[in-house]
């Protein structure tokens, strides 16, 4: 060091590193634990979106969770959001079509909490076409959620969740009935897509049972030719009556009973039997 008071020198820099708070993380599941679900069309399931809150959330300027469902899906109820399991007006949930958003309105009030939990009831549309579903690889419909934010320094960012997928189950094809072995199916009230199992969306929804049975016909050989007796006459199957019985559980209500015989020659018989059924129905 010299005696010249005008001499100045700078020391080496010694920066102080301010720890950066970790950015929020967002994860998504189906029915709490699943990454993929095979589900019937029109049957509700739940999307679970969990978004971690930064420790300095009280200093954030914006914080929004967004989830937009694919067009072949639809929101099947009222989405709800909680902070660590508690309902609060510090966050606001909005639904516009297939888009659900959760926005933080009061950052100070959620300081110290850990995550936003968003629940979205959804379903594959009942009337979605095969063409629309075939646009997705293996008919598997993906979905992701995002979180967008502006932190305490005014820096903006966004993150996507992991993808989750749903795929429509192929409807079960009812087996063809054998003689003396009736087949029973269940499905929508309009008779479309009968299967061996049907999920109701609401307990009050109407549904329909169908019972199909083949009436024994004249016997034929392996080639499909009529079997003949010793005199060369076609063997006939003589029927004196056919009865189909179905016992309905007493927790169900019968709205209507109908009969269909797939043979033009018996149309008049069908009409007479339907009249009898309608009379019996009034007595139920």
From TrEMBL:
Residues 144-197 are annotated as: Disordered. Residues 167-178 have a biased composition (Basic and acidic residues). Coiled coil: none annotated. It comes from the Bacteria. InterPro entries: Fim_isopep_form_D2_dom (IPR026466). Residues 152-164 have a biased composition (Polar residues). This is Isopeptide-forming domain-containing fimbrial protein. The lineage of its organism: Bacteria, Bacillati, Bacillota, Bacilli, Lactobacillales.
